[in-house]
Amino acid sequence: MSDMLQITKRELKTGFRNSWSYSFLVLFCTFSLSLLLLNAQNPVEGYSGTTGSMLNLILYLLPLMTLFLGSFSLTAEKEDGSWQLLSTYPIGTLSFITGKYLGLAAVLLLIVTFGYGLMGLVSGLLGNPIDLLTYLLFLAFSCGLVLLFLSVALLIGSLSRNRWQALTISVSIWFFAVIGWPTLLLAILGQMPYLWIKPLLVVLTFLNPAELVRLFIVIKLGGGSILGPEYYQWVSWVQQPSGSAIFVGMCLLWVSCSILVVYVIWERGRSRA
Fold this sequence. Notes:
This protein is 82% helix and 0% strand.
């Protein structure tokens, strides 16, 4: 536990010394304030065309930002020789990976909460506040994207030899998970028998953290009817009183499995060194 906390503190210090973090902070704050323009034109409450546009804008920015920072953090350990030095100390690989995840998550969540805090403050001063429930769901949407895509970023950093390789893989995964997902989904499901479509749709949704979080928030905002009959069961369990707890449990399982895979990769590399 102490080793994990030390790695977390080290990652926090490194994160706030990283110019990338401040670049993303300025970018996200600018982005958050731009959302106020949408709110000024059409008050944001529940699910609407404006809300959907805002969700898509967040979906384009946050996963890419998270993939870059997370994957670069691990590849930097390889390129700078920091991991080779740390591996000579009695530090457990799982403590190292978990500490990296917690430290990076803290940096990214601080960027997100600062941006939303600035947006809420400015909207309040201008006398045009965003609906509180919608505001909190947007914050939850952003935090969920960060936490899930950070685990993907660590996996990318584990498999990449350098920053350029991590950059290429990050952009590719972001493109297929966010932009190319509808086309990819239609192409795959269109080749399957009808009885396989719903089970396969569930599996593919779980494999894509962007789609998993997006569906949950859209249903919570009251837009479940636009998803179609294939997602009827999703709408049913999300709207249950225990729906949020089930979703959090799924996210924890997603993150835990990803960290376990990263641990296996780094442990094998450590044993060969």
